[in-house]
Design a protein that fits this description.
Order of helices and strands: HHEEEEHHHEHHHEEEEEHEEHEEEEEH
Largest sheet: 8 strands, antiparallel
Helix content: 25-40%
Number of helices: 11
Shape: globular
């Protein structure tokens, strides 16, 4: 993208982006190399208004830094505490919450989920094939998002009022307001084929609440966020201080424009707002056998299971494996566990390299584009070899 094509609001040049990043959050461990210039070049090339990047190794956060602007209108810089909507990276937190319950012996991954529900759950095309926790975690549950994408559950600017349980009953239970045997369930039997399922992850969050005896959001606040020192993390828009919010931007006809944040009732799927400083503590634990800052969020065996990649039938060619929550795909010359997230005005990614116990995260406040996807991959690869 040439300077003439660069959105007017961002024609500040690499030096301006770099200055904003350094003013926002400096990291002595990386102050003498050329990472800052590299990040600024990637931002400029992809037209990214605000960027937060982080690196963790062996359970310790080595880098958590902001670049560019959280809000272009008032030129508010991104800092280590700026809270981005991490979108579907949220699913890795939901998976960790479920694995914690498995560690405690409160659920078995290969057990049917139906006995834990207050509504019937059965694929009408395969009535004798139960849906298990592992099926839900690995997107082979046969619960389809086809109907989900045909009904817009999102609310602009505020949190959704529809309760998660009501949404699931309407969608999955025969007679429900949204229920469709064809649109809510696939023709494949549970466990037979990969089919990315947001509704399935909403169900996991609901199950975690019923089994844990407490809303899963409270479980994660008490057992994961607080022990890790994640002070700038929220499951809601309302719980995200305006002064810390990264304004989402969409690119239309070459110009960046702000868009309202979105709220949706299936919050276990992608509602977390989080700073890079906070997210990297969770990523650090995930890359380090489930422990960081002296806090174990998942057992070592449980974390190994989460990162044990399988190749179920139907896995798309852009993935090389599917774990419990985490996925795997090519990065540079190898493959890495990862999860991406996207919503209007946001694109995010987290990568893990269990072999070196390293993890990275990249957060942006712009709708994903081909250029930003490529930039995020290059940033992730560079950080993992820094």
């Amino acid at each position: 993208m040439s300077d003439s094509q660069f959105p007017t609001a961002l024609r500040m040049g690499r030096r301006g982006v770099l200055a904003a990043g350094l003013a926002a959050f400096a990291s002595p461990a990386f102050g003498k190399d050329d990472l800052d210039a590299f990040f600024a070049d990637e931002m400029a090339g992809a037209g990214i208004p605000g960027l937060a990047v982080g690196l963790a190794r062996k359970g310790t956060v080595r880098l958590a830094r902001g670049y560019g602007f959280a809000d272009l209108a008032d030129r508010r810089p991104v800092t280590g505490d700026t809270m981005f909507h991490i979108a579907s990276i949220t699913k890795t937190v939901t998976a960790a919450a479920v694995m914690r319950l498995a560690d405690q012996g409160r659920l078995a991954l290969d057990a049917p989920v139906a006995p834990h529900l207050d509504f019937p759950l059965v694929n009408p095309h395969h009535r004798d094939a139960p849906v298990t926790f592992r099926h839900l975690l690995t997107h082979v549950s046969s619960i389809s998002d086809a109907k989900y994408y045909g009904v817009d559950f999102r609310v602009s600017g505020v949190d959704a009022n529809l309760a998660l349980g009501d949404l699931l009953k309407d969608y999955l239970a025969p007679g429900g307001r949204i229920y469709s045997s064809e649109g809510c369930f696939s023709k494949a039997a549970p466990g037979a084929a990969w089919d990315y399922s947001n509704v399935g992850y909403g169900l996991l969050g609901y199950l975690a609440g019923r089994i844990g005896g407490q809303d899963m959001r409270e479980q994660t606040r008490e057992a994961i966020f607080a022990p890790l020192g994640m002070r700038h993390t929220s499951w809601t828009i309302a719980g995200t201080p305006e002064a810390l919010r990264a304004t989402p931007y969409d690119l239309v006809d070459g110009a960046l424009g702000p868009v309202a944040p979105v709220g949706f009732p299936d919050w276990p799927v992608g509602m977390i707002r989080c700073s890079i400083s906070d997210l990297m503590r969770f990523v650090a634990a995930s890359a380090n056998g489930g422990v960081a800052r002296g806090t174990r969020i998942v057992s070592e065996q449980g974390m190994a299971q989460m990162l044990d990649m399988k190749t179920p039938p139907g896995l798309p060619d852009w993935l090389t494996g599917q774990g419990l929550g985490w996925m795997e795909s090519k990065l540079g010359d190898g493959v890495k566990a990862n999860h991406w997230g996207g919503d209007p005005g946001v694109f995010t990614a987290a990568y893990l390299d269990p072999a070196s116990r390293s993890g990275v995260a990249i957060l942006t406040n712009m709708t994903a584009s081909a250029e930003s996807k490529a930039a995020v991959k290059r940033i992730a690869a560079r950080l993992l070899t820094a």
